[in-house]
Amino acid sequence: MRLADGRPRSVGPARGRPRSEAVESAILEGVMKLLEDGVPLAELSIERIARTAGVGKATIYRRWNGKEELFVDVMRAAEPPDPELPGTSMRDDLVVLLESLRRRGLMNRSSAILHNVYAQMKSSPRIWNAYHVNVVNPRRELGKEVLRRGQRNGELRADVDLDLANDMFTGPMLLRAILRPDAELPEGLAEQIVDSVLAGLRPVSSPAPAPDRDSQPQPQP
Question: What are the CA-CA distances from residue 65 to residues 13, 32, 70, 178, 221 (Å)?
Fold first, then answer.
């Protein structure tokens, strides 16, 4: 498979001479080719990657500190790019975020290589941790920032726990995309989830107080 459009963001500090997008793309494509050929992550050495990409090992080490950082960039480049939020409302931003999760779920289902690589990553604690630190956690923090803005703008109740609320929005989509591979991921699912959850989390007008029974006129016998 071809890597997704858009240059991956580096997970490490800039090192050595100026970076070349063409060289980086060749390295990332080289890793994906090896994975497509069935080479397990554990057997992917920097030397083998360099040979496949047609570069020297030093070229890779100038751009990544090690295999963990390189694999994270490979996976990030293979996924759809992170969405640009419209910023028109909390609801609209949440729909865009969940739609991105839906599309990632569809891509993972259609790509045997991605599904296989994710499974292998979970068996490598260092790579899995690097992926969470550099990819998953920033996406989660972006969702929480959308909710924070919603609280400031009065779109979300001030007493709502943001970690819990974020799980309530993303949980149903992740459940269908990852834990239930047979579940449908239809268009419009993001809107359906967001609107259903917001129905219980939006601020509501205080109900009118119940009448005081003692102050009501008592029926005459």
Answer: 9, 19, 8, 30, 90
Q: What's at 68, amino acid-wise?
A: E
Phi, psi dihedrals of residue 90, rounded to the nearest 5°: -60, -40
Distance CA 50, CA 30 (A): 8
Which helix H or strand E contains 143, and what residues bound it? helix 137-152
- Using alpha carbons, list the distances in angstroms from residue 26 to 10, 14, 20, 29, 174: 15, 18, 10, 5, 32
Residue with tokens 């917001």: 198
Ordered DSSP codes for 160-219:
--HHHHHHHHHHHHHIIIII-TTS---TTHHHHHHHHHHHHHS--PPPPPPP-GGGSPPP
Q: What is the mean pLDDT of each run of 10 residues along the chain (221 residues)?
A: 49 50 93 89 92 95 92 88 93 97 90 81 88 93 97 95 97 92 94 96 65 52 50
**What number of CA atoms fall less than 13 Å from residue 71's CA on the CB side?**
28
First and final CA of the chain: distance in angstroms?
87
pTM: 0.79
Q: What 8-state DSSP symbol labels residue 195?
A: H
The full length of the chain comes to 221
* DSSP state for residue 135 in the 8-state scheme: I
Q: CA quadruple 1, 134, 69, 10: dihedral positive or negative?
A: positive
Residue 216 has a pLDDT of 52
